[in-house]
Write a structure and sequence with these properties.
The complex is a heterodimer of chains A (372) and B (314).
Chain A: E1 5-10, E2 18-26, E3 29-33, E4 39-43, E5 49-53, E6 58-62, E7 68-72, H1 75-87, H2 93-103, H3 105-134, H4 137-152, H5 159-171, E8 181-185, E9 192-194, E10 199-203, H6 204-207, H7 213-228, H8 231-249, H9 255-290, H10 296-311, H11 317-321, H12 326-339, H13 348-356
Parallel strand pairs in A: 8-10
Antiparallel strand pairs in A: 1-2, 1-7, 2-3, 3-4, 5-6, 6-7, 9-10
Helix pairs in contact in A: 2-3, 3-8, 5-13, 7-9, 7-10, 7-13, 8-9, 9-12, 10-12
Chain B: E1 4-6, H1 10-26, H2 32-45, E2 47-49, E3 52-56, H3 60-86, H4 90-121, E4 123-125, E5 128-132, H5 136-152, H6 158-171, E6 173-175, E7 178-182, H7 186-202, H8 208-221, E8 223-226, E9 232-237, H9 241-257, H10 263-276, E10 278-281, H11 302-307
Antiparallel strand pairs in B: 1-2, 2-3, 3-4, 4-5, 5-6, 6-7, 7-8, 8-9, 9-10
Helix pairs in contact in B: 1-2, 1-10, 2-3, 3-4, 4-5, 5-6, 6-7, 7-8, 8-9, 9-10
Classes of the chains: A alpha+beta (372), B alpha+beta (314).
Chain lengths: 372, 314
């Protein structure tokens, strides 16, 4: 920092730039000489003095608004100036990271990507789930209640069969923290779903396909597990966290990247959704056993749905919300073998089942099939 | 005469974006306003007029404050709706919904105003600050009047709305003692977009690049810079449809084939294209501008304008 350098000086009063000469007078100030012959001292250790450095430009400013400004482009001078300022301890964390990044961009790039991917794949879902679990279960109930009130307007609820189903479900202890409320809705779709907090909706379409009480018990066990394990809340927390994370990261980046990232996120959530379905199968089977129902019923239910999917490709609703794969059936079968059969059968279920699914009163346009 | 230039390098922007991403991720998003301030600063520093760079004075701290204010305001507006829903009362839910809609509508002019005031006051060239002297009341008047007209004309009046808004906001933009003027006409703008829309449809999208050129030209060619001594500088675009075609197609290819890594280079190409295609005609003396704007301390909602994708570019 011993040489004289050329600089551009703005006085803050007018837009006229001046070619100034800057030289170091002592360790703590610069001397600025203007073409008109004026010269003044520019203190370095002063509260009103700020400096910024971009890739090829050093910008010093001083004083109250409007500030006086010096621009210097001389590379060697910038280097020694920055060294001198850092020597007195005025370097931010940002500049440190930036100069580190500039020293090895490729390595830095790979490191950042690895870190971000790890954060997205493991840290983020873990944190999101922990946060979701902190949310009290009453919130689940309120969300579910509000959602059900709105949905109920558009659904035809079969009161009588709903009561029968409620009684059927009441025989089983499926959820420790919630009291499931069951509804039978007149609708040809082969589908059923659970809302957070306990509303479980079963369409007549899926009931009509059932032959025995244990299949119904398996369906309810599956749906009640969604409620008990708070799958909706966890799913929401995860997808929201993922979405926020990605949009913050690529908020600065353009549309193409955003679309790719959002789809990747959705795909990942879909994968997570499949994981939750398998969990609902497995935990549901444990509940079945505890309630005196053979866990093989879950396998029967899944096989029934698989047949359904093949016979009526236009009614794949259950398939899209409950992705059904050979592996899932296989997993349920293995789990059933592992659990074994219950010591005492739950016989009252059969009687109640006949009230939920009256014989010969199947609302489905029957397609000729070998069963029944 | 060509006086504007963009000097930034893709590699430089790439490193800055990467550092921003890292710091944003490890602070769980809290760093975002600071990252944004750094990035804006880089764009300004690399844009030059007559060989002198622009400067962005905004700080992450200011933007963070604006961000928090904006989030608070939005929560309040959305809160009205959710409070209504929570009561399970249809009437109260509808009232909450109404409050939310009106709140959001009233929010937009506030964001435009805040963004313009903040962003302009934090911009300088040769040590002289820009400034915005429009009034919030007048902006509300324009937005309400034109908003209603746009609604009842099924969107057709939107072209007039856009031009009135642009005329007003740019007309109140200043650079020290000099000022800016935009002379857009709703009918011209409407016909241009109508032509662009149908030709793009008929040519299966190919005309889209020429439509883009027309919009760009319309924004640039109607812009004037008036000086205190009565002299003026007119802006003139030299962009062509072919130029837009090359810019956009190559940019998309760069981004896709590098899986997004090349984004910084595509961005730099765009900035170069824009700056290279704006020429300035007139003999006004750029040295003669005097500092006039006071220091503006309120970072109203700059960051929110960014969230809602209301780009402010001048």
């Amino acid at each position: 920092m011993e040489r004289e350098v050329q600089a551009i000086y703005y006085d803050g009063a007018t837009s006229r730039p001046q070619e100034a000469t800057v030289c170091v007078s002592d360790m703590n100030s610069l001397e600025v000489r203007l073409p008109g012959g004026d010269r003044f001292q520019w203190p370095l250790e002063h509260k009103g003095m700020e400096w910024e450095r971009s890739s090829s430009l050093l910008r010093l400013s001083f004083g109250e608004h409007p500030r006086r400004v010096l621009l210097i482009r001389e590379e060697l001078f910038i280097k020694s100036f920055v060294l001198r300022m850092h020597y007195t301890g005025r370097q931010g964390a940002y500049d440190r990271v930036l100069s580190f990044a500039r020293s090895g961009p490729v390595l830095f790039f790979l490191g950042v990507i690895a870190l971000l991917v790890c954060a997205y794949l493991w840290l983020l879902p873990w944190t999101a789930e922990r946060l979701a679990m902190v949310v009290p279960r009453e919130v689940d109930q309120r969300i579910g209640e509000t959602a059900f009130q709105q949905m109920a307007l558009a659904m035809t609820i079969d009161k009588e069969r709903s009561e029968a189903l409620q009684e059927f479900g009441g025989m089983l202890k499926l959820s420790a923290h919630h009291e499931p409320v069951y509804h039978v809705v007149t609708e040809d779709q082969v589908n059923a779903f659970a809302l957070p907090g306990g509303h479980i909706v079963v369409f007549t379409g899926i009931l009509g396909k059932m032959d025995s009480a244990d299949e119904l018990a398996a369906l309810l066990a599956h749906e009640a597990t969604h409620v008990e394990e708070r799958h909706s809340t966890r799913m929401m927390a995860r997808s929201m966290a993922g979405y926020l994370f990605l949009s913050l990261l690529i908020g600065d980046v353009n549309a193409v990247v955003a679309v790719v990232a959002e789809n990747a996120n959705a795909l990942r959530n879909l994968g997570y959704g499949r994981g939750l379905e398998s969990e609902a199968d497995a935990v549901g089977q444990e509940r079945l056993l505890a309630n005196g129902v053979d866990p093989h019923a879950m396998v029967k239910l899944l096989e029934l749905l698989e047949r359904e999917a093949m016979e009526m490709p236009e009614q794949l609703a259950f398939l899209s919300s409950h992705p059904l794969t050979k592996e899932r059936i296989e997993a349920a079968r293995r789990k059933a073998e592992e659990l074994g059969t219950p010591s005492a059968a739950n016989e009252k279920l059969d009687l109640l089942f006949r009230r939920v699914v009256p014989h010969g009163d199947q609302p489905i346009k029957e397609i000729p099939s070998s069963d029944n | 005469m060509k006086r504007l230039a963009f000097k930034g390098q893709g590699g430089d922007l790439f490193v800055i974006l990467l550092v921003n991403m890292l710091l944003t991720a490890i602070t769980l998003g809290l760093y975002y306003p600071w990252a944004r301030a750094r990035r804006l600063g880089w764009y300004y520093e690399n844009t030059e007029l007559d060989g002198h760079p622009f400067h962005f004075h905004g700080t992450g701290r200011e933007m963070f404050k604006g961000f928090i204010k904006a989030i608070g305001l939005l929560l309040l507006i959305y809160g009205a709706y959710f409070a209504g829903v929570a009561t399970h009362n249809i009437m109260l839910t509808l009232i909450g919904l109404l409050v939310m809609f009106v709140g959001l509508l009233l929010f937009i002019p506030l964001v435009i105003h805040g963004t313009l005031r903040y962003r302009s006051s934090r911009s300088s060239w040769r040590g002289i600050h820009f400034g915005y002297r429009g009034s919030l009341g007048e902006l509300y008047r324009i937005c309400l009047r034109d908003g209603v007209l746009t609604l009842i004309t099924f969107g057709i009046y939107g072209s007039w709305f856009a031009m009135n808004l642009r005329n007003y906001t740019i007309g109140h933009l200043r650079y020290g003692s000099s000022s800016f003027q935009y002379k857009g006409d709703g009918l011209d703008y409407f016909l241009m977009n109508l032509k662009g829309y149908f030709l793009t449809l008929f040519t299966l999208g190919i005309y889209g690049f020429w439509w883009q050129r027309d919009i760009f030209n319309y924004y640039v060619d109607n812009l004037n810079w008036n000086f205190q001594d009565g002299k003026r500088i007119a802006f003139k675009s030299t962009a062509t449809g072919g130029g837009f075609f090359a810019l956009l197609v190559v940019n998309v290819l760069i981004v896709i084939f590098t899986l997004g890594i090349g984004f910084a280079w595509a961005e730099v190409r765009t900035m170069r294209f824009v700056m290279d295609n704006i020429t300035m005609i007139g003999d006004a003396d750029l040295d003669s501008v005097v500092q006039t704007e006071q220091e503006h301390k309120n970072a109203m909602a700059d960051d929110l304008g960014d969230l809602m994708d209301i780009g402010v570019f001048f």
